[in-house]
Amino acid sequence: MTSSEVLNLFRETGALLDGHFILRSGLRSRQYFQCALLLQYPAIATKVCEALAEKIREIDCETLLSPAMGGILVGHEIARHLNKKHIFAEKDQGVLKIRRFDIRPGEKILVVEDVVTTGSAVKETCALARQAGAEVVAVSAIVDRSGDNPPDFGAPFHSLLKLKVETFPADALPPDLQTIPAIKPGSK
After folding, report:
1. What is the pLDDT along the chain (188 residues), one digit of tens a residue?
2. Quick check: 177 and 30 in contact, CB under 8 A?
3. How many Cβ atoms are within 10 Å of 98's Cβ, its own excluded?
4. d(CA 43, CA 59)
5. CATH number for domain 3-166, candidates 3.40.50.150, 3.30.565.10, 1.10.357.20, 3.40.50.2020
6. DSSP state of 146
7. In sequence order, which residues have a C-beta less than 8 Å from that of residue 2 and are 6 or more positions away?
8. Which three-class secondary structure state does DSSP give residue 119?
9. Which residue from 101, 121, 104 is spatially nearest to 25, judged by alpha carbons?
10. C-alpha Rg value of the chain to the nearest Å
11. Contact by Cβ (8 Å): 74, 49
12. How far apart are CA 26 and CA 21, in angstroms?
């Protein structure tokens, strides 16, 4: 699956939004990848996640670990294609934790997310795995919108679609975004 095919699926499903968005990091953007709108179609979810699974198939891992919410469906679907176990981290009183699952010391973990900009949720998830004694062998995402400033996860990072999407600090918005109310469609 090519980058343009992935981008077309986002457009066809209405999952690539235009406007003024507040990202999880607090940065602002004109575009927002709402993977939930893409992944609501099981055939499309299968197609996209299978393409990413093929890209990372050779990575030696035992378990896929995803941050909630966006990464859960992606991680589960990719784990299905790779025939691996999938677990997730979730918020507990505002703090990301691994509550329902155990991670063994030395376990080889592949962290999976839907969209990465600054990678803050992925970094937290990697830290949780490492605190449990696991080895984070790689990170993957459907969309890497970090552009020329990829996050450092302390492990190789793979994505299906890599884009440079402009982001802005809230106090340095361009004039066009200053006139549009900001919305936060993803993680709260």
Report:
1. 899 999 999 999 999 999 999 987 788 999 988 999 999 999 999 999 999 999 999 999 999 999 988 899 999 999 999 999 999 999 999 899 999 999 999 999 999 999 998 899 999 999 999 999 999 999 999 999 888 888 999 999 999 999 888 889 999 999 999 999 999 986 55
2. yes
3. 19
4. 25
5. 3.40.50.2020
6. B
7. none
8. coil
9. 121
10. 16
11. yes
12. 9
Task: Name the token pair of 3.
Answer: 């980058």
Q: Which two tokens stand for residue 47?
A: 């197609």
In the block, tokens 């990372």 appear at: 56
Number of Cβ atoms within 10 Å of the Cβ of 169: 10
Q: Which two tokens stand for residue 23?
A: 């990202």
Structure tokens at 179: 């006139």
